[in-house]
Design goal:
By secondary structure, the protein is α+β, with helices and mostly antiparallel strands. The protein is built from two helices and eleven strands. Helices cover 24% and strands 32% of the residues. Strands 7-6-3-2-1-11 form a six-stranded mixed beta sheet. The chain has a three-stranded antiparallel beta sheet with strand order 4-5-8. It has a two-stranded antiparallel ribbon with strand order 9-10. The two termini are 20 Å apart.
């Protein structure tokens, strides 16, 4: 059994929670069989990478930071990022934001101000995605995985 540190446990829980939300909304969700896949799930053919963050205190203000590209990954290999914000003041549940890839950044920082300025739109984008308003993705039958130089087939993905 693999050992996961606290941030990886939170990330895995976020992936499972988002997959469950999407499936409960009628989306077809498949998870890669390999833990080294360049994205977390396929949703109606869209490659999705889920990121989650707890609130940090930055000079007395709430801040959430999401790592997009680590030192190993030089190219974004998903269609969308779903950011799961934990500990948002006055909200009992996490808030989800949808970002279209590529974002061309190593990290995304979210503040209360950025949530007010554009977060509502990104939250509504997530809701629309969850309801299937984006249609089928480009990768609904075969899936390009550029980093490995081969085509991924449905056999490399598991439902759920």
């Amino acid at each position: 059994m693999e050992h996961l540190d606290a941030p990886n446990k939170m990330g895995r829980y976020a992936e499972i929670s988002v997959a469950t939300m999407l499936k409960n909304s009628g989306r077809q969700v498949q998870r890669p069989i390999s833990l080294t896949a360049p994205f977390d799930m396929l949703v109606d053919g869209w490659r999705i990478d889920v990121k989650s963050a707890l609130m940090n205190n930055h000079h007395g203000y709430p801040l959430w930071e999401f790592s997009i590209m680590d030192g190993k990954r030089k190219v974004e290999q998903c269609d969308f990022y779903i950011l799961r914000i934990h500990d948002l003041p006055f909200y009992a549940l996490p808030v989800h934001l949808l970002y279209k890839a590529p974002v061309r950044a190593r990290k995304i920082s979210v503040t209360i101000r950025s949530l007010i300025d554009g977060g509502a739109v990104r939250a509504m984008d997530f809701k629309n995605f969850m309801q299937g308003n984006y249609g089928p993705g480009l990768h609904s039958h075969t899936h390009e995985v550029p980093a490995h130089g081969h085509r991924a087939t449905s056999a490399q993905f598991a439902d759920g």
